[in-house]
Design brief:
Largest sheet of chain A: 9 strands, antiparallel
Low-confidence stretches of chain A: none
Structural class of chain A: alpha+beta
Mean pLDDT of chain B: 92
CATH superfamily of the largest domain in chain B: ACT domain
Number of strands of chain A: 26
CATH topology of the largest domain in chain B: Alpha-Beta Plaits
Mean pLDDT of chain A: 97
Strand content of chain A: 25-35%
Distance between the termini of chain B: 34 Å
Number of helices of chain A: 7
Number of strands of chain B: 8
CATH class of the largest domain in chain B: Alpha Beta
Strand order of the largest sheet of chain B: 2-3-1-4
Helix content of chain A: 10-25%
Order of helices and strands of chain B: EHEEHEHEEEHE
Low-confidence stretches of chain B: none
Number of domains of chain B: 2
Helix content of chain B: 10-25%
Oligomer: heterodimer
Number of helices of chain B: 4
Shape of chain B: globular
Distance between the termini of chain A: 11 Å
Radius of gyration of chain A: 22 Å
CATH architecture of the largest domain in chain B: 2-Layer Sandwich
Largest interface: A-B, 32 and 21 residues
């Protein structure tokens, strides 16, 4: 098997000779030239995803005033940020809802503003109001602080998302007799619609199903700027059953990603309000896959037809943690607008934006082609499956 | 020429209890479906109709309604999607029954066809970005 190293690919990027294609373009290349030919031809495959990703948030250091303060409670635009870290550090989580929000008192609640929206406002350069209280110490005597600030006024702002970019996910339906409002959108009763939420063949981890290249230190497109994969995400599950193409047939791998919020862009980082559920953050991520050998090439050529996900009932099974999936459906069918489940034709709706995912894969492709973005070689690889499928000739 | 459009009728306090719809049925050759009706606490009645018939008859019917003191708004002129806010995620398409919002299977963009909108308001609830405006019977036609 012929191989390339990340260092070799980086020097090709510097020389302006690197061949970069998006994950969608790679499908035809692998089909036409086989994995071996594709590996010879292509150096990097770019992927993309844009959707609601809970388990997102930002570490903010809002700086000291005079006198100094050890903040024990912090609110930004009335959204609480966890302050039990240090004197003026806090962590603002995407799903934290604004104080006084009626929540689901009148169901479904609108959840119009929360941590995700504060992050969007910061990135958009808007002024936010920070209030903090403290019990006062000899070294940090101040007890109250109110100040209006922008992202530029923050000492540091680091987006740090412990679980993003879920590889594959459920297709949600509702078998109950009432309409339900979930993080998978609005689901009509008696299985009258289905929703699903990945960018399929463009999705980063679906293009590197055994984590051959994506690991700690992989440099990525994150929220319009650059970021780094800093660990496997929470709930990372490498042992999810896989199909004959090596693709997990359910929720599997995840990533922890980190980057400087100050260089991000609101187009790719958006506060989301999910009726009846809460707030969150839509995040745009693009991961470059260095085509190290024919196995990497083969997997980066995966298409929607070859990726399946389980159909899960959110009316009863999911909330109760019981039951079995109703079956598997593939993404080609899901994106076509309807699927057949248990003999019934059901309209489908995506929840992640493939339009934006495609945009991100193309931006990353341009960054690399123009020499402005070097790949980060994975310094530590993630737990993976014990056996891998064989690459066809 | 036959035409069909979805309109919102606003019955202000003074005309709320007059048999205007009865006269619309009797005197004009129109077919209509009542899509939604609501009486608001501010003493205002609202009715969403799909009006179809000969173009001329539709025009005359609307003229009659306005002469009777009913405010008539074409829904297609009122419902809006803010393209700055929309990210084309597709969540709205899960609830839109008349297919005024649908995903183009080629480009995977969410397309909005205001002519088909019946102002049920479900997409306003479903949209995580609050990009859909004026598609709710209670707020439709209000100054934005």
């Amino acid at each position: 098997m012929s191989t390339k190293s990340v260092e070799e690919i980086n020097s090709r990027i510097r020389e302006g000779k690197c061949v970069v294609v998006t994950a969608e373009e790679m499908i035809d290349i692998v089909a036409a030239e086989g994995p071996k030919g594709a590996a010879k031809k292509v150096d990097v495959v770019t992927t993309g995803t844009f959707g609601t990703m809970c388990s997102s948030g930002a570490f903010l250091n809002f700086g000291h005033a005079s006198p100094k303060m050890k903040a024990s409670k912090v609110f930004i635009n009335e959204v609480e940020a966890y302050a039990g870290i240090a004197a003026v550090d806090c962590y603002l989580g995407a799903t934290q809802v604004r104080e006084g929000d009626p929540l689901n008192a009148v169901h479904p609640g609108a959840f119009s503003y929360g941590g995700g929206h504060v992050i969007e406002d910061l990135v958009a350069g808007k002024e936010v109001t920070l209030t903090a209280t403290s019990y006062g110490t000899d070294c940090y005597p101040a007890r109250r602080l109110t100040k209006t600030m922008t992202l530029a006024d923050m000492r540091d702002a680091i987006l740090h998302n412990p679980r993003n970019d879920y590889r594959n996910y459920n297709c949600a339906v509702n078998l109950s007799d009432r309409t339900i409002y979930t993080y998978m959108g609005i689901l009509r009763p008696r299985m009258n619609n289905a929703t699903f939420s990945t960018s399929g063949q463009l999705s980063p981890l679906l293009n590197d199903p055994y984590y051959r290249t994506i690991g700690v230190g992989t440099r990525i497109f994150l929220g319009g700027g650059t970021g780094v994969v800093t660990w496997a995400g929470t709930q990372h599950a490498p042992l999810t059953p896989r199909n004959e193409r090596g693709i997990p047939t359910g929720g599997a791998g995840t990533l922890t990603v980190t980057g400087d919020l100050k260089q991000m862009n609101k187009r790719y980082l958006r506060g989301a309000s999910l009726a009846g559920y809460g707030t969150s953050l839509m995040v745009g991520i693009g991961v470059p896959i260095p085509v190290l050998d024919e196995e990497v090439a083969y997997h980066a050529g995966v298409s929607n037809r070859e990726i399946q996900c389980p159909v899960v009932d959110y009316g009863n099974d999911y909330p109760q943690g019981t039951g079995e999936p109703l079956g598997l459906v593939n993404y080609e069918d899901l994106f076509s607008g309807s699927v057949e489940i248990r003999g019934k034709r059901i309209p489908t709706s995506p929840l992640a934006s493939v339009v934006r995912a495609r945009e991100i894969a193309n931006i990353l492709k341009n960054w690399i082609s123009e020499g402005g973005f070097n790949l980060g070689a994975a310094q530590e690889l993630f737990p993976t499956a014990p056996e891998r499928v064989k690459v066809p000739e | 020429m036959a035409t069909s459009k979805n309109v919102l009728l606003i019955f202000h306090q003074e005309v709320m209890y007059k048999p205007i719809i009865h006269n619309l049925v009797r005197n004009f050759d129109l077919i209509f479906n009542i899509l939604e009706a609501k009486i608001l606490p501010r003493r205002e009645g609202r009715l969403i109709l799909e009006l179809s018939g000969d173009e001329e008859a539709v025009r005359k019917g609307i003229e009659f309604l306005e002469a009777e003191g009913v405010t008539v708004k074409t829904i297609a002129d009122q419902s809006r999607r803010d393209d700055e806010l929309c990210v084309h995620c597709g969540a709205c398409t899960a609830v839109c029954r008349p297919d005024a919002l649908s995903v183009n299977p080629e480009t995977l963009e969410v397309e909005f066809f205001p002519d088909r909108c019946v102002a049920c308001g479900l997409c306003e609830t479903a949209c995580p970005m609050k990009a859909l405006k004026g598609v709710n019977i209670e707020r439709l036609g209000d100054a934005v």
